[in-house]
Amino acid sequence: MQKQHLQTFAEDCAALLREVTDGRPVNRRAFMTACGLLGVSAGLFRVTPVHAAGREIVLVNWGGDAVTAMAEAFAQTYMADNPDAEVIVDGAGPSSGAIRNMVESGRITWDVADRNIPASLELGRLDLLEEVDYSIVDRDKVRPEHAGQWGIGNYIFSNVLAWDTEAFPERAPQSWADFWNVEEFPGRRTLRRHIDGQLEAALMADGVAPEDIYPIDVDRALDKIRQIKEHTIFWGSGAESQQIFRDREAVMGNLFNTRASVIRRETGGVIDFTFTEGIVWPGAWIVMKNNPAGAAVWHFIASTQEPERQVKLFELLGNGPINPEASALVPEELRALDPGSPENYARQIPADGEWYAEHSADVLNRYFEAIS
Amino acid sequence: MAVAGETVAAPAPPRTRLLGAERVNLVYWALVLVPLVVLVVFYIYPLSRVLLISVTEPRLGFGNYVRIVESTGVRRVIWTTTWICLVTSTLSLVLGYLLAYAILHMRSGWQTWMMVGVLLSFWVSILIRAFAWITLLQTRGLVNNFLLDAGLISQPLALIRNELGVIIGMVHYMVPYAALPLLASMRSIDARLVPAARGLGARPLQGFLYVYLPLSLPGIIAASILVLIFSLGFFVTPALLGGGRVIMLAEYIALQVNETLAWGLGTALASSMLITVFLMLVVLARAVSFRRLFGAA
Description:
heterodimer, A: alpha/beta, 2 domains, B: mainly alpha
């Protein structure tokens, strides 16, 4: 009920837009732009705008800075190479629920979405995604584990340990064992309100060797998280995790490296972080089953594999290049922030997409039960 | 066509009557039809789809409803939701009662300003309010800083990111929803009755407890059910003020629909919630007339 309250005005405007455009040839780009301005997803309309087919490609991601960054790094560069093509970036948030709803209803407005390898396996097995066309997309431009059946790696991000250096002037926490040690490192913690990268941290804190993390011993991980839940704020969105540190509400956290980099810059290093024992994830492009742009989307995806464009996204957003070739092009002064650089990658644990695809839904419910 | 033909061919006397009561009836039904169609298309149809998913996914039957009863995780969410809603409703009701009573017994100039105050709060979005509470109540927020500086506390109080924070945020939102129906109900109480009781020897408290309170009882029942129903659906407030650990039904349903894709369980929970609310409304309708509740009578 509350959420609908917030949306009422935008939805109303959207309805109006729909009335105005209904039945007339409307350019899909104009339509998407209007939707973007209203802060609603074109998916809400459950209509395919007239002239949707052809050379227009809709990329959907999670909004905020990622919209402008992906537009600059990927969309504009692709349009410069292909003058008759249009790439529209929509920040509506490609949640599994939204994708399932769109594909099953048959009214598909998105082509490619910014998700990750585990999600590609989960959704692909539900027959909601197109298989990656490796005759167009280059499998060799990513590490082998980042080229999936339904998803192709698009960038790298990590769950990292961040801390407040003023809270621990003598000795900085350097491991998840320190994170769980509330006697020597007193103060509030913050963990993600999601299992990704949190269960692994708990197991490492409990003494499991990095190479033995998978398959995850869920009971053991959840017990470990229960131990510190009284000391922990569970963040929902990346922005929230950043705000918790800005307000100095927590002294240690398990954050995305992108957010940790921004806070470190903002605070002039008062909040610091390390890639040691980080959990590294491949973001991935996934393509909706029967997407409106058809095979053209694979040419666009292939273009995002270019090292220069990967580096551009990293500079704008902090998401590490997934193409190992691109890591070498990262400017010297930014190299320490790249989760995919050879040094940083070696200090982290690669997440096991297969395990997540298999267990995510069930374990997520158990995680919610454990922290509440 | 045949039916229409018969009507036209009907004998004269009924036709003259049609210009009277029956014509009014026709206009009446036409006016009712429009909202009825809107209701069916935009509410009844989607809701029936939701009900259908709850008994067809992942397989036909009542498995999802059995899961609601059996799963400890779901039971925990239901318990948290019930507990928080009951506390919120009780506090909102007490505060709303005091507020309504105060407004009613103010001089009329003050009355207007207090009403404006209550109604203004409706215009502030729930998201903005949650952020405002965070700014006020967090560890280094205004309230804790003030109390620390004044020497009243030595450690910052944990006012948000727990159940207390959720309840503060929800009560703040719900007080007007309690106060307005109470005000409508109190307005209909004859103002001479308490003075009459006093004249017959009742002490002030007795006058209130034995005369005023029983007379305002329909308003109390109406307000409490209304507030309880609204509280059940809270989403933003627990998510932001609960520190991620206070998980209520609305958020749990969103998790099932968006993340785990357990649409069967999600819709079963949503349907159960809907049925609960419907039953509460039935009770409410028995306790008080809806027309009076919303001040139409």
